[in-house]
Amino acid sequence: MPKVGIIAGSGFYDFEGVSIKDVRKVSTPYGEPSDSYRICEFGGLEFVFLARHGSPHRLQPHRINYRANIWGLRDLGVKRILSINAVGGINTGIRPGDIVITDQIIDITNGRANTFYDSDEVIHIDFTVPYCTELRDVLLIAGSKNDIALVNGGTYVSVNGPRLETAAEIALFARNGGDVVGMTGMPEACLARELEICFSCIAVVTNSAAGLSSGRLTATEVVDTMKVSMERIRSLLMTTLCTIPAKRSCECRHALKDAIL
Ligand code: HPA
Question: pTM of this prediction?
Fold first, then answer.
């Protein structure tokens, strides 16, 4: 089966039933990934784990080497990526503790290396549907098998950080159809697409976005809500790993077809 990669905060490989078989340091033409890759096993299934912010957590979202992270996964044979992201809820129907399987992106990051094709080759990758439809379906089915309520679809607004947003910015994103806001959603998704790797986002709502709750936003709130969501994410990931079809039948594997000028 094509290998699965999981990108998340540190601690996510530390689940009951998961054993670490190997720790691989990978160097890439784009520099060093955030951390060594942990080759993990769960119920006879292998996956590769990467701590996005390094371990211990030391990299701010705008300082992450997204290209190296994705290239390293590709070097290890990964063809599918499940990416876990902490987000703020913009859509008032989405509450802290909810998990959203996002289906669209608005990218307003800047200054991040966001392509593997920045030399002589001219490539315009199709990104109409930014996430792998097959992986999204598997996640949604895994949710219902575990009685985990998932929000099916939502637009992820990817901001640069590291500061949080103003209330006016969040109001603007809401008017423009944003459902959740986070700092790490891009360029991971489009870099994976450029390498024809399936990619899906599990957005864990850790707080109401700026201006939508009475108080200030705190990093503690984000970390605490993530902790509360851990057990559901664990079940979701493990069932997903067991139900991913052996063969890929989505469009991601042909992403470069007709993209090269
Ligand atoms: N804004 C941006 N990034 C975030 C938030 C937020 O409210 N919560 C978690 N990551």
Answer: 0.95
